[in-house]
Amino acid sequence: MKTPITLEGKTVFVTGSAGFIGANLVKRLLTVKNIRIIGIDNMNDYYDVSLKEYRLQELEKEAALAEGSEYHFIRGNLADKDCITDIFSTWHPDIVVNLAAQAGVRYSITNPDVYIESNLIGFYNILEACRHSYDGGAKGVEHLVYASSSSVYGGNTKVPFSTEDKVDHPVSLYAATKKSDELLAHCYAKLYNIPSTGLRFFTVYGPAGRPDMAYFGFTDKLRAGKTIQIFNYGHCERDFTYIDDIVEGIIRVMQGAPEKKNGEDGLPIPPYAVYNIGGGRPENLLQFVDILQQELIRAGVLSKDYDFEAHKKLVPMQAGDVPVTYADTEALEKDYGYRPATTLREGLRKFAEWYKTYYHI
Length: 361
What we know:
Blueprint: E1 2-4, E2 11-15, H1 20-29, E3 36-41, H2 49-65, E4 70-75, H3 81-91, E5 95-98, H4 107-110, H5 112-132, E6 143-149, H6 173-192, E7 196-201, E8 204-205, H7 214-223, E9 228-230, E10 237-238, E11 241-242, H8 243-254, E12 256-258, E13 261-262, E14 268-269, E15 272-277, E16 283-284, H9 285-299, E17 312-314, H10 330-336, H11 344-358
Parallel strand pairs: 2-3, 2-5, 3-4, 5-6, 6-7, 7-15, 8-11, 9-17
Antiparallel strand pairs: 1-12, 10-16, 13-14
Helix pairs in contact: 1-2, 1-8, 3-5, 5-6, 9-11
């Protein structure tokens, strides 16, 4: 059972609100009547900050047009406990959506410190703030929704990946921090009765996305005449999920919190759940690259006579990568009546068109 939550008239705290998913979620939330959105982002330089600034500017335009809705942006760090405490004491959020995290599998191998700071300490600060939101008998946080990742499935060979599968063998520090977040959320749900839902995202892509993701990085390199590397000799499969589908999934989950109830011992049964959000249609990387090439040519990002084969190299698997990601979305369909539907070609077409406009090609 889910406890229904209305978004109208609520205060929603979105962390990572200048990030790819966060900015798109805020944009969608601004269409809700009489909603107040508090966003936070540390604007780090993991990738080009100008892209984050662009997203913020787009949100400012949307907020100016939104009738009866508010968006307040705070430049801050989740690892700064005083900052998070102050936000909760000032704004008293009804719903918290924690999307802020240090992303990237490969980067976690060379820069582990930032993953511990953001993904563990930062998330701990969010959990503590949610816990204390009930102090003094206050209504407190109605629902904590947080980002996990398909990376938690690690070396699992059974596909599609189900939330019922064991995820005890991460192959990157990034994956280990995301699994740790799920464990922390479960603990706080049990101890303090905080309704919490984790979302395991599968390879999110789309316009104004992260430049470190393959589709964006490949495009940059192809435009510059450089060679792209396709790992595992092209024998990888990814469950790509278009950004609008991810946002729709988050919105639906926000409005249905795990039910609070006690067990036979009189103690809370953890109001806790985890869901996959993925397309459920894994694509071979070579096929993905072929579609990307076609759409870049169609949009005019690459010339019609571009020699694609001369700029492609098949290479071995990289440390931290997995050969296949594939989401079992049955639980999401059952509980929220939703399954992502955007095809890879549709999504890459929208990305290619945005890329042409953004870079004035």
